[in-house]
Amino acid sequence: METDGVPNETDEGVDSEAERRNRSAPAVKKIVGLIVAVVLVLLAQRDLRKRPAELVRGSVRVWKVVALVGPGAVAYLLFGRRRVASTVVLDPIDT
């Protein structure tokens, strides 16, 4: 029953703050997931563009196509890149 146009808590159609938060949580998770996927795809594509072909496992063209989707970008970043062995070369001292 309404008093002065203010709905009761038991009236239908009245949402509590917690109910509104619970409904919006899946949408927020989807948006965050989409942003993360886009960032990973952009990172993978940038890396493929700048990395020499000798440092990519397999074909660069294939990886560019695979890395257009989130899981493919993750796969490239984890498994498609060769690690560069860092070596320190000391110049002999001329005496």
Structure description:
With 95 residues, the protein is an all-alpha fold. The protein has a domain at 17-80. Helices cover 55% and strands 0% of the residues. The chain is built from three helices and no strands. It has helices at 17-50, 60-66, 70-80. The protein is elongated, with a radius of gyration of 27 Å. The protein starts with 16 loop residues before the first helix and ends in a 15-residue tail after the last helix. The model has no long low-confidence stretch (mean pLDDT 84).
Please bin the fraction of helical residues. 40-55%
Total strands: 0
One letter per element, helices H and strands E, the order comes to HHH
Q: Structural class per helix/strand content?
A: mainly alpha
Major sheet attributes:
none
Taking all Cα atoms into account, the compactness measure Rg is 27 Å
Task: State the shape.
Answer: elongated
Provide a count of the helices: 3
Oligomer: single chain
Beta fraction of the residues? Answer: under 5%
Uncertain segments: none
State the end-to-end distance: 100 Å
Residue-averaged pLDDT: 84
List the helices and strands and how they pair.
Layout (H helix, E strand, L loop, with lengths): L16 H34 L9 H7 L3 H11 L15
Helix pairs in contact: 1-3
Features of the shown structure:
about 100 residues; mainly alpha
Briefly, what is this?
This protein is mainly alpha-helical and 95 residues long. Helix content is 55%, strand content 0%.
